[in-house]
């Protein structure tokens, strides 16, 4: 992996500690509420698996798959639903789980989309936030780490569908995508 990793941005240990804190906070905020945790595939897979095990209240989970990045490092801006929720979400409290908020276009689309289905509330938990690249003013309700404007891989995040399995968050070497 040294061939593609420029440097580690967030270590496994830092992620572990942060996920525990986020799980505690969410458990407190949603106690006595009917919470549906919605993971956004594929990027959120790893974070979702860790986060739900740090939540101490009863929850249900579901998944959506959307794609806007395709093969590259730039968002196309057009969000496509590749897999939708299994059930209706009317009057339910929804927590969207994302790996990263970058331009915000994916999240903006998802929040509007789920609100329009009559959810009681729609909030967002992301492990990474890259606010310097926003094209639309959205902010996560829960955030693990604010990161600089660099393309990152690992902990679910890919470059051209690769490197999702790396257990930390690392900066991708520029020469990998500037060939
Ligand atoms: O804030 P944005 O600029 O919209 O970027 C964030 C989104 O882009 C990535 O998904 P992607 O479309 O690459 O699909 P993937 O999760 O399958 O990698 C990431 O997982 C977020 O969903
Ligand atoms: O930095 C990133 N890495 C991987 N996928 C992404 N999707 C948005 N930003 C990123
Ligand atoms: Mg991607």
TrEMBL record:
UniProt-listed Enzyme Commission number(s): 2.4.2.8
GO cellular component: cytosol
GO molecular function, one term: nucleotide binding
InterPro entries membership: HGPRT, Hxn_phspho_trans, PRTase-like, PRTase_dom
Gene Ontology BP term (one): hypoxanthine metabolic process
Organism: Heliomicrobium undosum
Pfam families from the UniProt entry: Pribosyltran
CDD domains: PRTases_typeI
UniProt name for this protein: Hypoxanthine phosphoribosyltransferase
Pathway: Purine metabolism; GMP biosynthesis via salvage pathway; GMP from guanine: step 1/1; Purine metabolism; IMP biosynthesis via salvage pathway; IMP from hypoxanthine: step 1/1
Cofactor(s) needed by this chain: Mg(2+)
Family: Belongs to the purine/pyrimidine phosphoribosyltransferase family.
NCBIfam families membership: HGPRTase
Function: Purine salvage pathway enzyme that catalyzes the transfer of the ribosyl-5-phosphate group from 5-phospho-alpha-D-ribose 1-diphosphate (PRPP) to the N9 position of the 6-oxopurines hypoxanthine and guanine to form the corresponding ribonucleotides IMP (inosine 5'-monophosphate) and GMP (guanosine 5'-monophosphate), with the release of PPi.
Phosphoribosyltransferase domain span: 14-159
UniProt entry keywords in alphabetical sequence: Cytoplasm, Glycosyltransferase, Magnesium, Metal-binding, Nucleotide-binding, Purine salvage, Transferase
Name of the top EC class for this enzyme: transferase
Reactions the enzyme catalyzes: IMP + diphosphate = hypoxanthine + 5-phospho-alpha-D-ribose 1-diphosphate; GMP + diphosphate = guanine + 5-phospho-alpha-D-ribose 1-diphosphate
Subcellular location: Cytoplasm
């Amino acid at each position: 992996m040294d061939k593609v990793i420029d440097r580690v941005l967030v270590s496994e240990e830092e992620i572990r500690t942060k996920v525990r804190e986020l799980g505690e906070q969410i458990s407190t905020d949603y106690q006595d509420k009917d919470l549906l945790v919605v993971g956004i595939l594929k990027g959120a897979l790893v974070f979702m698996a860790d986060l739900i095990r740090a939540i101490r209240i009863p929850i249900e989970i579901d998944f959506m798959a959307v794609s806007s990045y395709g093969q590259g490092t730039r968002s196309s801006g057009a969000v496509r639903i590749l897999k939708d929720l299994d059930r209706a979400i009317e009057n339910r409290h929804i927590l969207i789980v994302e790996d990263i908020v970058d331009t915000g276009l994916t999240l903006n689309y998802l929040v509007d989309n789920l609100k329009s289905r009559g959810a009681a509330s729609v909030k967002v938990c992301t492990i990474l936030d890259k606010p310097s690249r926003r094209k639309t003013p959205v902010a996560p309700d829960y955030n693990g780490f604010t990161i600089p404007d660099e393309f990152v891989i690992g902990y679910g995040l890919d470059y051209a569908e690769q490197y999702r399995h790396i257990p930390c968050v690392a900066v991708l070497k520029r020469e990998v995508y500037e060939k």
